[in-house]
Amino acid sequence: MKDTFQSLSDLDRAHLMHPVTEFRVHEKKGPQIFTGGDGIRLETADGRSIIDGFSGLFNINVGHGRTEIGEAVAAQMKRLSYYPSFWNFSNEPAIKLGERLAGIMPAGRGLDHFMFTTGGSDANETAFRMARLYHAVCGEEKRQKILSRRWSYHGITRAAGSATTLPAYHIFAAPDPLHIPVAAPYCFRCEFDKTYPGCSFECAEDVAAVIKREGPDTVAALVAEPVLGTGGIIPPPAEYFPRVEEICRANNVLLILDEVITGFGRTGKWFAMEHWNTLPDFVSMAKGITSGYLPLGAVAANRKVYETIRDKSPKGLPFMGGLTYNNHPTSCAAALANIDIIEKEGLVENSKVVGDYMLDSLRSTFAENPMAAEIRGLGMFASIECAMPGTKEPAGGRPMVFPAAVASECYNRGLIARALWENISLSPPLCTTKKDIDEIISILVDAMEIVTDRFNE
Ligand SMILES: Cc1ncc(COP(=O)(O)O)c(C=O)c1O
């Protein structure tokens, strides 16, 4: 086994480039190779068992090793593995998945038309393209701008990457100027120096101010993660989305909710928008739609948008957007089997119950830890924001070093937790139990303690 591991490790260094990885560090350290998984646990090629406290990349909602999904995928591949869905070509799993999702989407705004994509970035790209098209067929071609909040991650392809406002993603490529940043509902780091409750929701009002400044007739849409994810797992105040929705409607700016992480039970509801009864024009999804068993994303358009494009597009002009793998039958079959598991095992409810337990336990366990400045979350999605005691300065004195050190100590002790900027973050599979949470937190306690001691030496 050791030989196999060593030769795989050498071959990885010789031939692979990894995302979000410093190539020279990778060559020195080598890869962590995973060979199996069951429930919330992963097996490594060097024989360790590790708790996947982050569900891969916030996506393995049903956990690892679900043979039902593999069987559904194999059966579909044997029948028809792929055929394009351009023009009027279609396939059974995509049709069934569209019908299924229409039933899962919150009622009230007719979110019942879907295009399946390959992931989250192209779901957002498709929503932007459709939003601009919607305005164009309504005679408002100038509505091209897309607003997005600071601390957002919407993907990394050109338009989605331009809507991503985290500066680290723009180091060598400036965002497209049609993408305009607005304030984020990030109370801990409020850019208006206000305190919630007691503020006037200046972050929501900023959406109105930016629309006014840019000219309402130039703004196509606002894209927003219901809970900011990669930015640090930041749920908004309850008042935020109702006001933002109102501002968008008043200005005929379409609202795109990016539920790529928050969809499929992550926050204790099927979709996070249900927490505030927000009804957008588009929803982008990915990740938990297949729990990562195969790549898939989706964009849902509401009936107003769909019917307007249908009825007002110039005759003979098709929707000129399409990827080879849109509505992929095998990926859609994986999604259907994944949704079966979520429903049968009550994983949305489990995400709420065990997620509440996780948040309460984190809050009580780290209440006295001077580096834990704020603990927040929703469902199976939580962060400890770290800072120097009594300040908002990075714990450890330099940006991002403290949470990264905690994550690394967690890994050494058998837990994958992730550093997101100044946060140490958890996003375990939705099948995690309270007992698992106790184990996760006890590892986190040890890791925090050892790193806190190291930084206080
Ligand atoms: C909220 C959000 N939107 C979009 C994306 C992009 O998805 P993908 O990596 O599948 O393109 C991500 C990925 O992490 C995400 O977190």
Concise overview:
The chain is of the alpha/beta class.
Tell me about this structure.
- This protein has 457 residues and is of the alpha/beta class.
- The protein contains 14 helices and 15 strands.
- It is 39% helix and 15% strand.
- A 7-stranded mixed β-sheet has the order 4-10-9-8-7-5-6, sandwiched between helices.
- The longest helix has 23 residues, at 434-456.
- The radius of gyration is 22 Å and the shape is globular.
- The model has no long low-confidence stretch (mean pLDDT 97).
- Pyridoxal-5'-phosphate binds next to helix 6.
CATH class descriptor of the largest domain: Alpha Beta
Number of helices: 14
Q: Structural class per helix/strand content?
A: alpha/beta
User: How is the biggest beta sheet arranged?
Assistant: 7 strands, mixed
| Tally of DSSP β-strands | 15
Radius of gyration: 22 Å
Question: How are the SSEs ordered, and which strands pair?
Answer:
Elements: H1 2-15, H2 23-29, E1 34-38, E2 41-44, E3 49-52, H3 55-58, H4 67-80, H5 92-104, E4 111-117, H6 120-137, E5 145-149, H7 158-163, E6 179-182, H8 202-214, E7 219-224, H9 240-250, E8 254-258, E9 282-285, E10 297-302, H10 303-312, H11 329-344, H12 347-365, E11 372-377, E12 382-386, H13 401-412, E13 415-416, E14 418-420, E15 423-426, H14 434-456
Parallel strand pairs: 3-13, 5-6, 5-7, 7-8, 8-9
Antiparallel strand pairs: 1-2, 2-3, 4-10, 9-10, 11-12, 12-15, 14-15
Helix pairs in contact: 4-11, 5-11, 6-10, 8-9, 12-14, 13-14
Bound molecules: pyridoxal-5'-phosphate.
Pyridoxal-5'-phosphate is lined by residues 57, 119-121, 124, 153-155, 225, 229-230, 258, 260-261, 286, 297.
